[in-house]
Amino acid sequence: NQDVLLPASILDKGKKLEYFLPRDRHAWVQVAHGAVDINGTRLAAGDGAGISEKGPLIFLAEEKSEFILINLG
Predict the structure, then answer these.
(1) What angle do CA 39, 41, 47 make, to 5 degrees?
(2) For residue 19, which of 64, 62, 53, 66 has the smallest C-alpha distance?
(3) Which candidate, 61, 63, 67, places its Cα nearest to that of 48?
């Protein structure tokens, strides 16, 4: 029994998405296709990253991209 949310997104090139990670939660982002910039860090297809930042996560698609965000309690 894990407290987890699994939002996913497909963004066209140049589109932006903001996601607010709630306090005391952590996330893992996995990029399936394309390339996205997350708060200044570029991730390409197959890349993943752990995130524990406070404040908004800003995703900017450098090309058409698909990714999931695993929001962990």
Answers:
(1) 125
(2) 53
(3) 67
